[in-house]
Amino acid sequence: MARILFTPPASDYLVPTDGSFRIRRAPTTPPAKKAGDDAKKDNKKQLKEHVERISELQERLYAADRHSVLLVFQAMDAAGKDGTIRALLSGINPAGCQVQSFKSPSSLELDHDFLWRISRALPERGRIGVFNRSHYEEVLAVRVHPSYVEAQNLPAPHASGAELWRQRHESINDFEKHLARNGTVILKFFLNVSREEQRLRLMARIDEADSNWKFDARDLRERALWPAYMKAFEDTLRSTSTPWAPWYAIPADDKPFMRVEVARIVRATLEGLKLKFPKVSPEQLAEMQRLREQLAAE
Questions:
Q1: CA 192/CA 194 separation, integer angstroms
Q2: Contacts of 190 (CB under 8 A, 6+ apart)
Q3: Residue 1 has pLDDT above 50, yes or no
């Protein structure tokens, strides 16, 4: 068992580690009591409070230099990953965080194992790292598009079908356990948007001039594969939500609610680490005082 650095914050959307998760039961909308105009105002206020607190805690994380935090975001197109990441990091010192987006792998990356490019992008201690898509594309998009596997030049014979995904889930769990043992706190967010809400958002990208640049015809081709993606997401979340790297399936049809829930979980995680600024020794304090007197005398 990995040395657990934190207790995953409680949430109605925490994916259980016993393999019982079912995507059809996972809500895409917030509870009724959290909807409406009043809820939007409340969410805006809560988000501001969470972000301010996260900013304070990030400074302690950076100063202590003992842990890193990795936030993984996965979702279907138009679920709101970019906006959520932007809202979450809006008050954080840029020196203490980094965001990585993973596109199609290069020829160099394809000549390594599927976790190689991820390892190179991990946040160092003291920093918050964000993966906008991640190593999970290897068991999501690659699973939905089997031809992608052929481009990876795996040695023959290699596992295929269900066995290939089982092996990759196992490799991911081992990889994340290794990171947890060495000080990385991992939180993974599946932004669970409904097919209908995605349809409306894709149409809005066409209807609204300022959003035209976001529209990509490939999104519609991926949308046509919705059932295959849902199967891949369900199997992946069931197999890779662990005590050391939990998944949260956050309702994404209501963006303000989604952002608040993500921010709340991140804040609670950082608070749970009991972060403190480093203390200096009596000898260091004495030297600092001597130097202060020297400056005062100038």
A1: 7
A2: 15, 74, 75, 233, 237, 247, 248, 249, 250
A3: no
Residue 200 CB neighbour total at 10 angstroms: 12
Q: Is 238 helix (H, G, I), strand (E, B) or coil?
A: helix
CB atoms within 10 A of CB 187: 20
159: confidence class by pLDDT, cuts 50, 70, 90: confident
Tell me how far apart the alpha carbons of residues 185 and 68 are, in angstroms, rounded to a whole number.
Answer: 6
Q: How far apart are CA 111 and CA 108, in angstroms?
A: 5
SS3 77: coil
Is the pTM here over 0.85, yes or no? yes
Q: How far is CA 274 from the centre of its chain?
A: 21
What's the CA gap between 67 and 110, in Å, rounded? Answer: 30
- Which of 258, 293, 216, 211 shows the shortest CA–CA distance to 86? 258
Query: Can you point out the beta strands (E) in 102-156?
Result: 128-132
Task: Identify the CA nearest to 134 among candidates 115, 111, 153, 106.
Answer: 115
Locate tokens 């809202």: which residue? Answer: 87
Residues in the chain: 298
Residue 257 has pLDDT above 80, yes or no: yes
Residues 67 and 182 sit within 8 Å (Cβ to Cβ): no
173-202: pLDDT as tens digits:
999 999 999 999 999 999 999 999 999 999
Q: Which residue shows structure tokens 């020829």? A: 107
pLDDT (average), residues 242-266: 97
Q: What is the full DSSP assignment across 17-69?
A: TTS---GGGS-SS--GGG-SHHHHHHHHHHHHHHHHHHHHHHHHHHHH-S-EE
CA dihedral 264, 265, 269, 275 (to 10 degrees): -20
pLDDT in tens, 238-250: 999 999 999 999 9
Nearest alpha-carbon partner for 136 in 38, 235, 63, 212: 235
> What is the per-residue pLDDT for 94?
87
